[in-house]
């Protein structure tokens, strides 16, 4: 048997902890005769399981003959890619395309139809959706790693027009906190702001412990320690499982911890660190001194006022780096990120604030 854990992004590992409640809720909503919503957002930090969850939803719906599932790239001409995806992946519409829709202007199909070429790709998508509705079919569009781009904004506006016409099109997007928020707050996209949002929260420690016990054959005590080391962070759960499997040890060795830290650093934390502003890094240097840092103590240590910290605090929360759910306290959310910050500040020296 090969290693059941994986730290590669974009596919479902052999061993993974599914967010069944979230997945079931979305699928139940979009399958309902009484439509609860046609747009959904998955958000969270890097490595929190957004892509795996999106892929699991796609897989479930592809097994249902009533659904057509088309994933599209976020940095493409989205409507054109969507129409092209339908043309190439839905054979049952071949007669419709050959007799009713000529897409040759957009490089889709061949110009052999007697029908004049379509000049507007949005109009083409509308015609396709009307045909799908006649046939009792539904279309799910999925977009991973969304950005606030012109093409994305145009597509969301087109999507809104289609659902206003009671057409069976559904959208699930996934992205980082900041990217989702920037898109929500873009001009003329208040519709997206109202769409249901699901945050990739930490995985359940008990489920992680049980999985490690069963898969790795370690003792309950070791499995509990491993689960605590992951902090419920999906990528950490995969990484720690991977290196324990490869070590063949039933105990957490120094080598496993070193490889675990290396994976977290190179795959996730260095990217997060580069995206932080100097003042956010500066405050983190103080926050990591304790497991949980009282804000009053932080302000005393830094010599800053509450209003000066409020901006960096909010950004660190949005970027998924700190937790401020307990009133008057902040703490680092990510496993072994405190150790990473200590190393980075040692390497970087002065981060330029205040």
Descriptive report:
- α10 crosses α11.
- The chain has 3 domains: 180 residues, P-loop containing nucleotide triphosphate hydrolases (Rossmann fold, 3-Layer(aba) Sandwich); 68 residues, no CATH class; 71 residues, Arc Repressor Mutant, subunit A (Orthogonal Bundle), CATH 1.10.10.10.
- It has 16 helices and 8 strands.
- It starts with 19 loop residues before the first helix and ends in a 6-residue tail after the last helix.
- The mean pLDDT is 90.
- α6 links the parallel β3 and β4.
- By secondary structure, the protein is α/β, with parallel strands linked by helices.
- The longest helix is centred in the last third of the chain and has 21 residues.
- The strands form 2 sheets. Strands 2-3-4-1-5 form a 5-stranded parallel β-sheet, with helices on both faces. The chain has a 3-stranded antiparallel β-sheet with strand order 6-8-7.
SSE arrangement:
Layout: H1 20-31, E1 39-43, H2 50-62, E2 67-72, H3 78-89, H4 94-100, H5 121-134, E3 138-143, H6 150-164, E4 169-175, H7 177-184, H8 190-194, E5 196-199, H9 205-216, H10 220-230, H11 234-247, H12 254-274, H13 278-287, E6 293-294, H14 295-302, H15 306-318, E7 322-323, E8 329-332, H16 337-348
Helix pairs in contact: 3-5, 9-10, 10-11, 11-12
